[in-house]
Amino acid sequence: MNWNRNEVCQLLSAKSQMSLCMIDGEYASIVHFEDARMRCELWIHERGVFLAADPERPVQGLPFFEISLPCTTLAPVPRSGMPTGLGMYSEPVSSATLRFPITRREDGSISLSGVWEGLIAPYTSNEDGA
Fold first, then answer.
1. Whole-structure pTM over 0.85, yes or no?
2. How do residues 53-108 score in pLDDT, each as one tens digit?
3. FRET pair for 22, CA 20 to 30 Å: which of 46, 47, 99, 130?
4. How far apart are CA 53 and CA 40, in angstroms?
5. In this structure, are strands 98-104 and 48-54 parallel, antiparallel, or unpaired?
6. Backbone angles phi, psi at 103, to 5 degrees
7. Averaged pLDDT for residues 9-25
8. Tens digit of pLDDT for each residue in 34-50?
9. How is residue 7 annotated by DSSP?
10. How many other C-beta atoms lie within 10 A of the C-beta of residue 2?
11. Does a cis peptide bond (omega within 30 degrees of 0) precede residue 92?
């Protein structure tokens, strides 16, 4: 996994709480971060990432949200008119290889955004007015 610990912690406003765990005999780094509503854990492993979010305890039997993603790189994802987020990419880093971004909004809350190729957001329109 290509990533910079300090950059990831800065983009997520993580409380520099990093811990390690073993997954299939290999170490994974765990980044803890939260906002006023959710506590999150991002597990970073050579094969990808696991993200869990829950108001009380992120990693449990039935958290509010969890996703695992095969990816090779964690890097900044610039946002037009919004703060820079953390992108989970498959190589090479580009908009086409972005798999999932996490963005700390200006109000301090966390946005977890899925990526769906070709999706047009409801607040935009295409050329024919649809």
1. no
2. 999 888 888 889 999 999 999 999 987 788 899 999 988 898 888 999 999 988 98
3. 99
4. 4
5. unpaired
6. -130, 135
7. 77
8. 999 999 999 999 889 99
9. H
10. 11
11. yes
